[in-house]
Here is the input.
Amino acid sequence: MDKGKQNMEDIGYSAFFETEREKLGLIDFPVARVVAEHRELYRVLTEQGELEARVTGKRTFEATGREDFPAVGDFVVLDKVENDKAVIHEILPRKTVLKRKRGNGEVQVIATNVDTAFIVESLNRDYSVNRFERYCAIARDSGIVPVAVLNKTDLISLEDKEEKVRELKERLGEDVIVICTSIETGEGVNELDACITAGATYCFLGSSGVGKSSLINALIGKDVLEVREIGEQTGRGKHTTVQREMFFLEHGGILIDNPGVREVGLTDMQAGIGEQFAVLEQLGKKCKFADCTHRHEPGCKLRGAMEAGLINEGEYENYLSLRKETEHFSMTDQERRKKDKKFGKFLQVTKKDLKRMHHKDYDL
Ligand SMILES: Nc1nc2c(ncn2[C@@H]2O[C@H](COP(=O)(O)OP(=O)(O)O)[C@@H](O)[C@H]2O)c(=O)[nH]1
Ligand SMILES: [Mg+2]
Ligand SMILES: [Zn+2]
Here is the structure.
């Protein structure tokens, strides 16, 4: 794969990117796909094979955030190619961006141009429907189709498995495909493989240890990825070479493993939550108050529906908690400052009012 001529369609290049490249007037420059990234050093795959690449100093200088840098999955246009080393001139517009926001507000791009996300959980421990819903919302927010993968079926009974599948389908809705897999017995690996189409890009999301790398190895049919025993040391600082994170199946599918991301946090993903919890979202629009928190307000349609048993209580709770979590990120800096200021003002008013009341218990 690394040597010889590479068919760009096989690695996901399409008319969409070609049109963008034309628009940018970059048709004479070679195009490549980023297959790995490590501290602003990239491995890119071109028609001629794999190369090491960097971004230009100008690009670093002009960057306003991580989103301006190439990420795994990007199609980039190269400037100079010399001795297996290249300079990235431009990132072609992205079809999808899977990102997370850190607590400090910094955006981290996990992968780009992903079509489908395999959301993997292991059935034996830490299994959580809430987490599936969270990942589905994250995927949908970026226009990525979520597929649920329940791995390690060999570790639980058939009844348990069927119960978990039933529960999951009820919560995720009919439009999310659920696949049960096991590396030990081989269950579901063919089913997973059948979901994969040539030229499309799939990423594996899920906590560490659920079996993402094992599943990729099983699909590829050889051990391209290191499978770690749970709790095994990761050997920090050992990474001197950039590990490939993108793999190509013989029948044309493209797989991305995300070893660096333990838990994908939330970004400003109101759209994704709205889509994942469409029924709840619509109901909430009919509440008496436009700013209803759906907790205790009179005339709350959502709470009413939950209490009447029309919507699942777990789903209701998860919806509210994800909404609350994302609120913080959806505010712009300016909005946050305004809110803080307003809060400061509110405190002043309260202080004044309290002073008037001369109440010792509330003396601030
Ligand atoms: N019993 C069982 N163990 C599995 C299965 N899939 C993966 N594992 C084990 O789970 C551990 C973590 O797997 P790995 O693929 O590294 O998980 P990742 O962190 O999600 O990439 C390894 O010890 C695997 O051998 C499975 O289907 N059944
Ligand atoms: Mg792994
Ligand atoms: Zn309400």
Remarks:
- Residues 277-330 form a domain with the Ribonucleotide Reductase Protein R1; domain 1 fold (CATH 1.10.40.50).
- The first strand starts at residue 31 and ends at 38.
- The radius of gyration is 24 Å.
- The longest helix spans residues 333-357.
